[in-house]
Design brief:
heterodimer, A: 298 residues, alpha+beta, 7 helices, B: 116 residues
């Protein structure tokens, strides 16, 4: 068999495998590219409603073909297929076609924030927790802190509900290890302070703490005044902006050392086990030997 | 004879036809169900139709919701209770008060009633 035949056979096989991914669902997407990140092979798309998958919104998508990320530019209108894996946790774009280039580079894209580098001190801005109490990141010195950002109205299962569910898993695991529980803290910060008032955050937190309010001693749900929140978000590289009746946002998780310094960032690729391991390691490592890791840049 | 008469007659019959259809028993309901189905696909199916092991609690399937006396939460399966659940959220289900209008929720209820 000559090389050409082999190549065709290989290509045919690849197409067949791609087309026959067991249980994968496919949906048609139409929208406008707002941003692209060749480092992570992602494009952020402001898209129309995708019947059966999600309502109209802006969110980042991984793209199977890295050449596509090189080709598209912010402002381009595209059509593509959203492929959702059988387990529902993984999704990406395939068959991306640029349908209109006339708006290229003319779309205003939110400026990416310059976040604090790993090893730097965290800002000590005031937050208001689920009990209406003012707290600061400095209050948790001596404990390793795992922090993330959500808004309670988020309807996307793979975004805020996933973050809170996986934090709940970490909380439940740590609760069984008193020493680790005492040396760690979880912090969920809402970037929707007008809606996520302390009572709303308390109600939300209780749902993830199996209605056991004692869990708030180890896991705070907080928000802040809008100006402080923007400073905090910029410090940690979180991007969020209102879009219609919802909030488009990036996913960010931050690990802070017991000395109040950034240890690591995560964006989308993480597991609860990985976060928990990193948190427990940070809590038990002696001061001065904390390993600063460079997280993936969103 | 007025040359516009045939056209006006057609318009008249069109108007009568549309009025009859609008008041035909069940026609309005079907429109609400159809719109409710679209809203369901956009807002509810992502969680209720797609099991996600990474969520703390699996959102229940909603087929036959009103065939049972009680909702998955244990509350009575009434329009009022389902409306409250959609608007305010329950447990880990988020509130949809900022996303859905009263009319949207009415249409969703119409769709959920016929979902078997």
């Amino acid at each position: 068999m000559d090389l050409k035949k082999l190549l065709y056979l290989g290509l045919g096989g690849a197409v067949l495998i791609a087309a026959c991914q067991p249980g994968a669902k496919r949906y048609q997407l139409r929208g406008q590219v707002l941003d692209k990140n060749p480092a992570t092979n992602e494009i952020t798309v402001n898209h129309e409603a995708i019947p059966g998958f999600m309502s109209a919104m802006t969110m980042p998508y991984k793209v199977k073909d890295s050449a596509v990320v090189q080709e598209v530019e912010p402002g381009d209108k595209i059509a593509a297929e959203v492929v959702v894996a059988k387990n529902g946790n993984d999704y990406w774009l395939e068959d991306v076609r640029i349908t209109d280039e006339s708006g290229r580079k003319t779309t205003p894209v939110p400026a990416p924030a310059q976040r604090i580098a790993a090893g730097e001190r965290v800002p000590n801005l005031p937050l208001i927790n689920q009990d209406g109490k003012t707290i600061h990141l400095d209050d948790f010195k001596g404990k390793a802190v795992l922090m993330t950002f959500i808004y309670t109205r988020c309807p996307m299962p793979n975004f805020c509900p996933r973050l809170s569910s996986q934090f709940a898993k970490i909380h439940d695991d740590l609760e069984k290890i008193p020493d680790a529980y005492a040396k760690t803290h979880l912090l969920t910060v809402s970037f929707d302070p007008n809606y996520d008032t302390p009572p709303v955050l308390r109600h939300y937190g209780l749902a993830y703490l199996d209605n056991d309010a004692s869990g708030f001693a180890q896991w705070d749900f907080a928000s802040a005044a809008p100006s402080d929140l923007r400073k905090l978000a910029d410090a940690f590289g979180l991007v969020y902006f209102e879009q219609g009746n919802q909030i488009a946002h990036s996913m960010d998780i931050v690990l802070i050392s017991p000395q109040g310094r950034i240890l690591k960032y995560w964006a989308a690729d993480w597991t609860a086990a990985e976060l928990e391991d990193a948190l427990r390691t940070a809590a038990t490592a002696p001061p001065g030997v904390q390993t600063v890791q460079t997280g993936r840049v969103q | 004879m007025n040359r516009y008469l045939p056209l006006s007659l057609w318009c008249w019959w069109l108007l009568v036809g549309a009025s009859v259809l609008a008041f035909w028993p069940g026609c309005g309901d079907r429109q609400a169900e159809h719109r409710g189905e679209e809203l369901f696909q956009q807002n509810c199916a992502t969680c209720h139709e797609a099991p996600n092991p990474e969520l703390k609690k699996q959102p229940p399937k909603l087929e036959g919701l009103f065939q049972s006396k009680t909702l998955p939460s244990g509350a009575l399966a009434t329009d009022e209770q389902v409306r409250k659940t959609i608007i305010k959220g329950v447990g880990t289900m988020p509130a949809f008060d900022q996303r859905l209008s009263t009319e949207d929720v009415n249409d969703l209820l119409a769709y959920l009633h016929q979902l078997k």
